[in-house]
Amino acid sequence: MFGSLWSLPVSESRPRIIPEATVARLAVYLRVLAGLAGDGRSHVSSGELATAAGVNPAGLRKDLSYLGPCGVRGVGYSVSGLRERLTTALGGERSRPCVVVGLGRLGAALADYAGFASRGFEFVGLLDADPQRVGDCVGGCTVRPIADLESVVADTEAAIGVITTPAEVAQSVCDRLVAAGVRSILNFAPVALTVPPGVDVRKVDLSVELQVLAFLDQQRDGGRQPVTVPVHAGLGAQR
Amino acid sequence: MFGSLWSLPVSESRPRIIPEATVARLAVYLRVLAGLAGDGRSHVSSGELATAAGVNPAGLRKDLSYLGPCGVRGVGYSVSGLRERLTTALGGERSRPCVVVGLGRLGAALADYAGFASRGFEFVGLLDADPQRVGDCVGGCTVRPIADLESVVADTEAAIGVITTPAEVAQSVCDRLVAAGVRSILNFAPVALTVPPGVDVRKVDLSVELQVLAFLDQQRDGGRQPVTVPVHAGLGAQR
DNA sequence: AACCGCTTGTGAACGCAGGAACAAAGTCGC
DNA sequence: GCGACTTTGTTCCTGCGTTCACAAGCGGTT
Ligand SMILES: NC(=O)c1ccc[n+]([C@@H]2O[C@H](COP(=O)([O-])OP(=O)(O)OC[C@H]3O[C@@H](n4cnc5c(N)ncnc54)[C@H](O)[C@@H]3O)[C@@H](O)[C@H]2O)c1
Ligand SMILES: NC(=O)c1ccc[n+]([C@@H]2O[C@H](COP(=O)([O-])OP(=O)(O)OC[C@H]3O[C@@H](n4cnc5c(N)ncnc54)[C@H](O)[C@@H]3O)[C@@H](O)[C@H]2O)c1
Asked: How far, in Å, is the centroid of ligand 1 from the Cα of A141?
């Protein structure tokens, strides 16, 4: 009875689950390591890496510990070794096809950005409802009509869908992407998308970012505003 | 840290600090409320608001409770009343001047986006180092040379600085913004900016978002489950 | 070969966020 | 006018994430 518990519940060697917050930071470490490798560095300490990534050294070590021991005590981490380790942990360096729906200003900026290709993300499908945009060439790929969504997803075997359409149509676009087989979605439209289980959605909300900054600003200089409604303005200070 | 900060006699019992995660959600609620007001709704329940915002109803009520009681039991929240309350809490509806440094694809998309103005964020200063871009008109504002940074910040009394330059120059741009008086910075360049105390930085890292999606995708494929979609409908996992 | 300094890896504590359950309170129907 | 229903506001609790601190391990040195 107890013996079976001790043997192995469901886990194997080192497949401990990695918190999502840690995964996000691992991606940052990987980028910093790429820069270090370009500078010809062979080893790096947790302190230096942490400074470059803007995090706490102890937290960085704990993050890396999810991958098992990958440093040498007294020396630090091998840049190339750690880079390889992180790359594999984050999903390998294989190419990941992505589709972008809605090639307005934001969508076009994303599709044209060279920084994604170096990480394995290739924008192989561009879709828009505007006939004037269809046929345009953005980042080496031609914009196709939204009616082709299903076939484009199928042909390219796209793993990630990026939604940069107006908010009103974002949910319907999302539904079509999911139905076509996309299971990872990056949403820039200011709406909360509803998806079936098994589909991951990440939302980037730039208005919220600005609003949080505005809040922190107001909180910082609490009483510099003699304007409207001063009654309830008693918030605590700092940070 | 300094708990004694709110020990002074405040008649209103609202000295509790608002967690940053809550602030971000408050901004989302505010946007949803704007849509509801446009539909002519006068009242809304926490459940409905939570569904539209993609969060848990109990969590929503807890978020709102940081502002004090602002709903009516048995009825719900007044759309206009809550909207006003949230607007005040998030920094008022006064215009917040912003400057954008680096008007490439991404910077131009931001400066030209109409959705920010409705929240009080006005892009009153656009700066770029490329002589070819200087003089361009983006979103009703003229691009000026980067040498004018200090004078533009001073003239517009800009509260927020948005950095969309290449990563190599982001830190120097940041330093100049801070020296010019900007205390809130939204950074899109893939570097960790160093700023003096009293300055807030928010970073938007799109590569990391994609990388996290790739990781979740790989993790999911460990079981290699097809697109099943069981009858367990309801709310999908947001975030 | 042993020592010493440096760095990693991990265990424990703390604080925070999220979720569920429950009591208060106000409204609607009769 | 009163009861019952609806919805809020709050409290408790659980789990996660972050930080501190320290023991363990490795390289270089004597
Ligand atoms: N541009 C920004 O800085 C910014 C900032 C925050 C949020 N956003 C959000 O990102 C989204 C896009 O912003 P934008 O500035 O690029 O807008 P945009 O109007 O420039 O682009 C939207 C594009 O989507 C296309 N489109 C419309 N309906 C479609 C459909 N049903 N199927 C496919 N394509 C369709 C349009 O033809 C257009 O090309 C919006 O939801 C916006 O709220 C943008
Ligand atoms: N476009 C994207 O989708 C995307 C995605 C992720 C990250 N980013 C990051 O956002 C930033 C901008 O991306 P982009 O695609 O708009 O690049 P871009 O090259 O199109 O634009 C950069 C702009 O900055 C200007 N610039 C260069 N040096 C400057 C300086 N010293 N002072 C002022 N302006 C200067 C350039 O003239 C150019 O107009 C980059 O750091 C990039 O890594 C962009």
From this structure: 18
Give the three-class secondary structure for A78.
Answer: strand
* pLDDT confidence tier of residue A220, bands split at 50, 70 and 90: confident
Model pLDDT for residues A59-116, shown as the tens digit of each residue = 999 999 999 999 899 999 999 999 999 999 998 788 999 999 999 999 999 999 999 9
pLDDT of residue A230: 30
The C-alpha of B108 sits at a distance from chain A's nearest C-alpha, in angstroms, of 8
Residue of A109, A205, A106, A128 whose CA lies nearest to B238: A205
Give the residue-averaged pLDDT of B24-30: 96
Q: How far is the C-alpha of B43 from the C-alpha of B70, rounded, in Å?
A: 12
* Single-letter code of the amino acid located at B40: G
Count CA atoms within 13 Å of residue B122 on its CB side. 12
DSSP output for A113-152: -GGGGGGTEEEEEEEES-TTTTT-EETTEEEEEGGGHHHH
Q: What is the pLDDT of residues A30-72, one digit of tens each?
A: 999 999 999 999 999 999 999 999 999 999 999 999 999 998 9
How many Å from the N-terminal Cα to the C-terminal Cα in chain A? 52
Q: How far apart are CA B32 and CA B51, in angstroms?
A: 10
Residue bearing tokens 């709310």: B235
Higher pLDDT, B238 or A135: A135
What is the distance between the alpha carbons of residues B1 and B14, in angstroms, rounded to a whole number?
18
Q: To test the ligand 1 pocket, which listed residue (A101, A105, A106, A127) has its Cβ within 8 A of the most ligand atoms?
A: A106
User: Counting runs of H as helices and runs of E as strands, what totals does chain A give?
Assistant: 9, 9
* Strand-pair category, A121-128 with A96-101: parallel
Q: Name the pLDDT band for B222 (thresholds 50, 70, 90).
A: low
Structural domains of chain B, ranges and CATH numbers in brackets = 20-89 (1.10.10.10), 96-207 (3.40.50.720)
Over residues B13-22, the mean pLDDT reads: 74
Residue B64, CB, strand D, below 7 Å:
yes
Q: CA triplet B158, B160, B163: central angle to 5 degrees?
A: 115
Separation between Cα atoms, residue B56 and residue B239, nearest integer Å: 12
